[in-house]
Inverse folding.
């Protein structure tokens, strides 16, 4: 930040510099952000626009002030051929991960991607799913768990299929299509056929991982 400020002082009056640095200064003291970041970080800032990207690989420390964004290191990482997404799926929720040859890290699903069956279906849940208790979800967090009781197995299966469709549409729209990365399904075997049957995601590969998605968060 000090190097950025000094470089900006060579170009702009002091009163114009503070607005350009405010977001980055706030980020420097954001404990929640630093507790959930990855091995690398890239920040691009201009008047009225700031973008921050967490990266799975370390990058050289560099501060550049110029008329255009210095994006070459970022582009090299984003164009790496070994990147992929993993969708962890169980009957109650999802987790989303990004991996490469070096690491597999959980990422925050985009706004619009349902995290749980309740979030995806809401009031449209059929009766057997209406009793809700809290339990550990994908990635170890707390998420709703739905207990079917006295209900019909066909209704539970219908909800699971509708949940799979909603997740498939949202992941395609918000993650697969924008990134172009291959998507791997990680789920217990009983969920594989259902998800592949309803999926319209051309980035979803045929081979799936037979693993409970909670286990993905512990992979180094």
């Amino acid at each position: 930040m000090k190097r950025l400020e000094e470089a900006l002082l060579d170009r702009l009056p002091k009163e114009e510099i503070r607005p350009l640095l405010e977001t980055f200064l706030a980020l420097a003291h954001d404990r929640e952000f630093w507790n959930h970041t990855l091995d690398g970080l890239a920040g691009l800032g201009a008047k009225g626009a700031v973008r921050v990207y967490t990266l799975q690989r370390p990058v050289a420390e560099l501060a550049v002030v110029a008329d255009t964004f210095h994006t070459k290191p970022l582009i090299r990482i984003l164009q790496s051929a070994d990147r992929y997404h993993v969708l962890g799926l169980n009957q109650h929720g999802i987790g989303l991960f990004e991996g490469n040859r070096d690491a597999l890290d959980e990422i925050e699903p985009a706004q619009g991607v349902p995290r749980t069956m309740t979030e995806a279906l809401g009031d449209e849940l059929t009766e057997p799913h209406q009793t809700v208790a809290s339990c550990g979800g994908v990635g170890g967090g707390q998420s709703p768990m739905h207990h079917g009781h006295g209900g019909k197995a066909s209704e539970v299966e219908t909800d699971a299929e509708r949940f799979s469709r909603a997740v498939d549409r949202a992941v395609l729209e918000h993650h697969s299509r924008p990134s172009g990365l291959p998507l791997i399904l990680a789920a217990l075997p009983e969920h594989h056929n259902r998800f592949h049957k309803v999926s319209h995601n051309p980035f979803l590969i045929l081979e799936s991982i037979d693993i409970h998605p909670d286990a993905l968060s512990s992979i180094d």
Q: What stands out?
A: Residues 153-179 form the longest helix (27 residues).
